[in-house]
Amino acid sequence: MTQLALVIDLNVCVGCHACVTSCKEWNTSGSAGSLSDDNPYGKDPTGTFFNRVQTYEAGEFPNTETIHFPKSCLHCEDPPCVPVCPTGASYKREEDGIVLVDYDKCIGCRYCSWACPYGAREIDEHQKVMKKCTLCVDRIYDETLPEAERKPACVMSCPTSARLFGDVHDPQSAVSIAIREEGGYALMPEWGTKPSNHYLPRRKTRLHIHEDELVRADNPLKKEQRGHAAPVDDTTLDDSTSW
Amino acid sequence: MHPAFSVIFLTTLIGVGQGLFLAVFTGQSYSTVELLPAEDSVRFYGTGAIIALVFLIGGLIASIFHLGRPERAWRAATRWRTSWLSREVIILPIVMLLVFIYGIMHYFNLDKVITTSETGFVLHLSLVIGALGSLATFALFLCTGMIYAAIKFLQEWASPLTVINYLLLGTMSGFTLATAFASYSAPALMNFFGIWAIIITIAGFITRSASLFRNSRIKYKSSMQSALGVRHSQIQQKSMGFMGGSVNTRDFFNHKTLLFLRSIKWIFILMTFIMPLFLLWIGLEKSNSATLMAAFLVQYTGLIAERWFFFAQANHPQNLYYQTV
Predict the structure, then answer these.
(1) Which of residues 87-106 of A touch B (CB under 8 A)?
(2) Residue A159 lies in a domain
């Protein structure tokens, strides 16, 4: 069974918000209609976004670390938002595991947003239906696009390639290998939602140099220094050997 | 969570309606086995059921304001296998229909005798309808409570106490209204309903206090560390990614000070439980209808505060991601 998902590398993300804007651009221009965007340049801007990049700081000055943290729907394998939906508008696709909302069935009761611990669902204040990340379902299967572009808009736009996209159930996919080998983890594992999206932790690259690696014992430049060592009094091999 | 008045009025109004219907039907069933005097069908059973229906309709109207797309509300009856909200959407009209049938059956004297036993027990059709209505009423309390209790990560709600409180607080307000109503239309039943209203109010006070006590000691399972997956004891949010508001900052926070929250708590404890208990006692002692009506009005106002606090107190784990602009 396929489970499409994103893997987000926190070690690489620089918090540029390119994924946020390209997500908004693609999804506001889609066939499902625009995403709300009120007072975008005014006093109290508000609107519906599928993807947000947040910034956190761990530690206390001067020992701090900045964490840029992109957050969108995690397309949980056991999504708590789906069974609570009274109309069946919220559903998880059998074929690829994407959690979607049928905008024509949604009654806008907001119960699913209460049932998502990650706050990934945002109601559209104009269409009055619940919206969330679709993993660009209208893009990844679009055969009019070149194959390399059949990826979510956020993945296409990321300048540092911090976002990977693929099937996390296929053990040989790039995302599975990244999760397995780079320590990928899920958010809030305590609720048993089994998020499909994974995050790769921030990693430190440290170089360990030992002293004997700095001073080479067999350095040819130092060969002559040996000549100044104390004269050898003992019989050498040359003396004891007769021809 | 942000307390939405549509849901506050929905849950409190249907609670009164359900409780009043239970009270009226209890009156009739007790009179069938001659524990209470039978009352006039039109003046008490019929009118009582119609008042209960008015409260249920009021709740239904309030619920419409919570929906973004009320014209599609019929779709909400489809997922009863998994969703408590869907189950509530199905049960509420069933309760309303049964209360309506029960009401007109008494009001227009359409009641029929189904069978009479040798001991003189007369089984009326209205009694069967009323029993079904009571069952549906209990099912509705269960559904309403479970809508909240079923969300496991809203830890303040995820407890059997939530369901018990919806049941007891709804029944309590219905019995208080029944006491006031009986004092006008069936004085012989006033003391019966009054004593039960006092008993259920005390029971509700105990279980609601238990949930307040439980919630004051909650250990939250989610933390900044599990939300981000970063193992560091000091994590601060520096930006939530946008400078204006969003649904996440409006729907999930109560935006009130701790002082305001605490004062609402004491106001609802006083108005839902303590003041109505005194007013019921005084009203019953002096057989004063106005005092009993005041007991209901104070208790209902208190219930609005209680429901507001119920929502405001719940702390959603998504709030961890929205700590600072």
Answers:
(1) 87-89, 105-106
(2) yes
